[in-house]
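Sample pair:
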Amino acid sequence: MKKRIVYIVGDLSYPNGMSRVLSQKVNYLAEHSDFEMYVVLTENASMPHYYELSKNVQYINFDINFEVIQTMPLYRKVWYYYRKTRQYKRQLTDYLMQVQPDITVSVLRREINFINDIKDGSKKIGEIHFNRKSYRVFNKSFLPSYINTFITNQWKKSLDKQVHRLERFVVLTNEDARNWKGFNNLSVIPNPITKFPDVVSDCTRKHAIAVGRYTWQKGFDMLISAWKSVYERHPDWVLDIYGAGNPAAFRKQAERDGVSSVVHCHEADADIYGRYAESSLFVLSSRYEGFGLVIVEAMATGLPVVSFRCPCGPEDIISDGEDGILVENGNIEKLADAICYLIENVDIRKQYGLKGKINSRRYQEDGIMQKWMELFNNC
C-alpha cells in the first residue's frame, strides 16, 4: 500500500523562499515516488497559487487566514488568535482523521503546538526553514527587555517540548544542527536547487547582484552602506538588487548615500538566472538566514559569492577562499573590502565562479530528494 503523506504548508499565494521550496518538494514526491501527497493550506483560499501544485497532489485550504491578525491591535490579536487556533486544531484533526495519513509533516508553525496530540495514527515529522537562534524571538519595543527575554525563553521551551516528541526533526544546515543540543531525532537535509541553469556568467561585466525580500533580515541597508565605499574605489561598478516587497526605503537610502546612479532596486524577476548570468559576483548581506538558497543559485550560474558569516547557511554552502569569501557578520567595512577584492582580481573572480558551479552540484534536486524519500520510507 502506498504511504500517504500530509504536508502542512500554510500559504502558497505569495512569493517567498519557504513556499517555493515546499511546493517544489511536494511536487517532486508526487511525481517521482509512490507516495500519495496531500497539502494543507490555511491562508487566502480565494487567491490563486503563486507556486503551482502538481495535479497528483490533493490539497485543502481551511481559509483560516491567520495573517489578518497582524493588522489588529494587541487586545484583539490575543482573542482572535485563540479563536482561529481552536478552529485550526478542529479542522486539522478532522482532516487527518479522515485521510488517515502514514506521515504528517509540520513546518513548525502554529500546528506544532498541538499536532503531536492528534491521534490519527500518523508519524509526526517536523522541518524548520529558519535557524534556531532567530526563531520564536519575542521582541516588542514597548515592553522592557527582560519581559521580551522571558517570553522568548518560555516560547522556545514550549517549542522544544513539542520537537522532542516528533518522530524526526529536520534542519537545513550542520551549523544549525549544533544549536539543537540534546535532540536524538535530528536530521540535516538542505534545500535543493530547482534546476541548474543553462546560462553561465563569464564574470566580466561590471555588475554585482543581490537577491531577497526587501526586509530588515536581508540587510540591504548594510549592503548599500558598503557599496558607498565600493563606489569610491570603483565608480564604474553597478549593484542590482532584486526582490519581493517594497524597495522604497532602500532607494531613498541609496539617494542619501549618493549611490543611486549605481545601486538599482528592482522588483522580483521571474528570470532570475538570467539576471545572475548578467552579473559577475553575488553578495549576501543578510543578518540571518534559514539556509540561503540564493547562494546556491548564484553559484550554479558561475558567480563567486561574498557573504556575511551570518547564522545559518553561508558557512555550510561557501568554502571560504575557494568559491567565495565569508566576512564577519555585520561588518560593513569588511564586506566592502571583500567585494573590492573580487572586483580588482578578475582571475580569482573567475576561478571562484567556476569552483562554485562545481560545488553547487551537491544541492541537485535528485540527490536532496533521495534523502527525503529515505527518511519517509524509514518512518
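The chain has a mean pLDDT of 95.
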